[in-house]
Amino acid sequence: MKLTKDMGIMEVVQNYPQTVEVFVSFGMGCLGCAAARFENIEQGAGAHGIDIDRLMEALNNAIGE
Fold first, then answer.
1. I need a surface site. Which of 10, 43, 54, 60 has the fewest CB within 10 A?
2. What is the pLDDT along the chain (65 residues), one digit of tens a residue?
3. Are the C-beta atoms of 47 and 39 separated by less than 8 Å?
4. Sign of CA dihedral 52, 26, 62, 34
């Protein structure tokens, strides 16, 4: 299953724990914060000024897609 930018951050982390390292490497180390529970990947990336396309590529590489 390919990850998409509209998926919830916590949903992805719970289903694919190997993505935690990717989020952290992109500067999204706040996976335990309240916002992460409600934001999708695109919203979280935008809040941190992260290139969403690069992040999605890295996340999908991490899960083998």
1. 54
2. 799 999 999 999 999 999 999 999 999 877 777 777 889 999 999 999 999 999 999 999 999 97
3. yes
4. negative
